[in-house]
């Protein structure tokens, strides 16, 4: 492809093309002269084609169905033929095509639909056959009783008998003869032709992987994906999944590429868009890089066009039929990429454009559930489609716009009905909305018009989309109210862009004229990119920096340059930009930050930049802590296209020049907006001259979409598109999605089904934003990586309003802590105060869980100076003292042995952090904290999370008013109460006694009052307070009850105080569930909580017991401390089997990756597998437990806290029991096995091996 002056001439020619170009559908069989470039986005439904003639700049667009086998074999090739004026089977002349640049969802759809390679073999290290099935052991949705983990992509696993240590020592040599024999059998007898190879530590020590890969290729496997070639980075789970994805998708991708190449002239320059936003040659296009191929083109187009049109900071907004994609871009920072993603349930470690998707699109179904207006996640799809499509479909967002008059049926394509020649069916929409309005009016206690209902659904949809944008902008520290533009594309984006922007406080919207084909347009603007990365994992110091950090960068530079030259032999090396980065993190954490590392940088400069960047993003820096260079990356960029984004002018409307002229509408019509009904001008884009101004409210129609200019906005037609600007005084910036105008004449405390859904979503969003802030700013692995934390907001009385679904055992229990702070401090609370506590006798759970509570004071105006809300965050701290490292002793008998007891300590006073008082509190006691600086860092993170919650709540008050906000705190609680009452009415009374391994019993009698829809849980008969540490404070019992009844509601409802209003707990004093000082409680939180949960399920008879333990394992010495909980089997229930190898009920913490575990601790993981066949028998079988085997390389103290080693998990309705768990130590010197009790400890030395088998779930129903 030519660059320089020739490209500049072509760009100028493109700019000169008339602005009347329109998407072409019909075939023109007159051959077209010239040499063309084709930029194509092959989507799941439509294929978009942008064609540009090299010399004249002639510009055309085309949209075709991606699948239309009656008319053509491939939509991309058909699009090329149509533009060139060729018949269907005519060969494509070589002189007519200069290049083809494509994005495709072939790989994405194959992954979503599980239609990749049918037979795929996964090759792993012996002992790790289930490593990808287990993953990180957490379940996707914490309230699902029927736990569904995504299926793995491979068909069978082959375990290589080999092992290499983290340092590269060969522990078991690879048996090449056995590998050759076995792989040959899989190929010839099993029919396998594709394999994925991921061996432990193979990313760094590659020889075994190389030899296995070579054998597979020699045997004739057509697809061999090897992990160190696919993604040479640490983390076996993510790297293994990515390698499997590559092997699963590459064959189907290769078949598609070959199909296209056969139709193109020989030697045609065919390039494909990668997920990272760069083009690559068809030969180098791989499955792992194709997952976001299409959407990446849209981000590239947005970035390139926005910068050229004067919008350097943008939020992209791509709203289609079923979902909306959003992303953030700042020209000064470049593309934002994520290096670890979950796509269709599969972990992918590959650089991808950071795009967030929310299930709100034009086809999202709108429904009234009796309380709230709900939008999505269900979609009407293409068939039957929205109600207005004349196929009997449900009401959707598209229909809402028809009802409000924002979509004009007469100006919309008439392609509906049996003969595909009728307009949208507005009458059907009106009829359905009238029925819905009657139903909603009865609940609201006031008349709601069909238009008001439709606008209400639009407000809810805007809420969801705005919250999605917050996740990729505001939650990451970007202030979108300052200098940002919302860049809109997609079929439905223009109808909602102003509302979304206004709710976020974004004052400018830009609608690209090629919005309907923008992803295809981006293919032509993209650069050729080769991105190379490698794990470094060395301390940042002068001694290691040159060889261990700069050395890999130099090598990666050569590899990246070589990759570009291989793809583009015509690329001038001087024109290739090289971007060098180091991913840097603090020792002991997993969150690395990308820092530029240009030539000449020193270790000291990189360290300084890291501390400054960490302080800027997270609010603190640990300058005395060791810094690790985690990964080196080099990105080689060749911008060889040279096309100006002004080519977009070819697709803009063409009504002549109209600079500064206010356009005259074709007509005016009554439309319903958030502020009520008003007259809106209707304009045709093709009639508007360049520079014309269109005042809102207005509707701008074009052949491929509709743009709504909301009241308070003005639009202007520019060469690059339609720019809409919010008028002064109309700026939003309230809570995301808040309607621009609230229902008229509605009392502040009245229940409105629209506002109920918006407040419900917004309260939960605030809690989720707090959680993200806490995770981002915390230091310890427990919070940052294992996700053992929770955040919540409370009303002025301490009643829970929203608890983000983080850690189940925290659910509902923080309210007690808040109420303790209220009662203990009375009027002695000032703005800027924060209190911390972990006292299990006053609202806490166990000592490592420290809660920080912050009051929210009213500012100017209503209620000024009064406490109006509370926010709180709870995190599991790595160590709070006690007799063992990590503060999880197996045999503690009094609370002081478990750590520092904290009760209502004012950690922040009037905005001043009490560092000295905190240090004294943590260190001047019988068993002090071992690392108080880590506690301080995590506490500062909790305080920062609370501060974010306060800011967001104050935005709500500013927008809605204090009275309405507080009223809806009660309304969302009432809504949750109603949902739980419905679930209670379907239950039956019962009772259950569940014995623990130590002989103690939890007993519960559930009394269901169906008429009053109430439940009483009476724990009379539970064992007395114990001398062990299995005592569970009352908040733990309350959390277990709240969790159980929340799981019985098969809907998305808020987790708040309302969930417990219909439930009475009767917990006798002096029992295991209501201990008093100085009872030990550490196991009560992690173990007894599981027993209480299973006991309630047993009394209700709704499912069998799960593993019933968290299998807490702690080991450490003076240099290392490590804590993990281990998954097991889930219980079965009516209609579903229990899930294997997953965390259940009151925990959902993640497991450390095997390679990371060995990298950071002196241990070796020998085995981690599912205990096949261990699940309880029954019509529906229980989930299986796991085997885990850890070898110690240094002397350590080992502690185990567990249950279900003597009393098995029960089966239900005739189902069999799950298998017991057990654990033991194998001594290196003698080979003897030492069995350990349920709660036990041992001193271990080098070579000693700890083996744990976790319990399985019980079966449900008699086995047929």
Q: Please, what is the average pLDDT?
A: 88
Calculate the terminal CA-CA distance, rounded to whole Å.
68 Å
Inertia-based shape: globular
- Helical run tally: 25
Please give the share of residues in helix.
Answer: 25-40%
Give unreliable regions as ranges.
Answer: 1-25, 646-655, 731-741
Tell me what portion of residues adopts beta-strand conformation: 15-25%
Can you describe this structure?
The protein is built from 25 helices and 55 strands. It is of the alpha+beta class and 1264 residues long. Residues 1-23 have a biased composition (Low complexity). Belongs to the oxoprolinase family.
Give a concise summary:
It contains 25 helices and 55 strands.
Explain the layout of strands and helices.
Layout: H1 5-16, E1 23-24, E2 36-42, E3 46-53, E4 59-65, H2 75-84, E5 97-104, H3 106-112, E6 120-125, H4 131-134, E7 156-160, E8 163-164, E9 170-172, H5 176-188, E10 194-198, H6 207-218, E11 223-226, H7 227-230, H8 236-263, E12 270-273, E13 279-281, H9 293-308, E14 313-319, E15 324-330, E16 337-338, E17 341-343, E18 346-348, E19 352-353, E20 356-358, E21 364-368, E22 373-379, H10 397-403, H11 426-444, H12 450-472, E23 485-489, H13 493-504, E24 508-511, H14 518-525, E25 528-539, H15 542-567, E26 576-586, E27 593-596, H16 603-618, E28 627-638, E29 667-673, E30 676-684, E31 693-695, E32 698-702, E33 705-709, E34 713-718, E35 721-726, H17 753-777, H18 781-784, E36 789-795, E37 800-803, H19 814-825, E38 834-837, E39 849-857, E40 867-876, E41 905-909, E42 912-913, H20 915-923, H21 932-960, H22 962-984, E43 990-995, E44 1001-1009, E45 1014-1018, H23 1034-1047, E46 1063-1066, H24 1082-1100, E47 1112-1116, E48 1121-1125, H25 1154-1160, E49 1163-1170, E50 1186-1192, E51 1196-1201, E52 1222-1226, E53 1233-1235, E54 1239-1244, E55 1249-1253
Parallel strand pairs: 1-4, 2-5, 5-12, 6-7, 6-10, 10-11, 14-23, 23-24, 30-32, 45-46
Antiparallel strand pairs: 2-3, 3-4, 8-9, 12-13, 14-15, 15-20, 16-19, 17-18, 21-22, 24-35, 25-28, 26-27, 26-28, 29-30, 31-34, 32-33, 34-35, 36-37, 36-40, 38-39, 38-41, 39-40, 41-42, 43-44, 44-45, 47-48, 47-51, 49-50, 50-55, 51-54, 52-53, 52-55
Helix pairs in contact: 3-8, 5-6, 9-14, 10-11, 10-12, 11-12, 12-13, 12-17, 17-21, 17-22, 21-22, 23-24
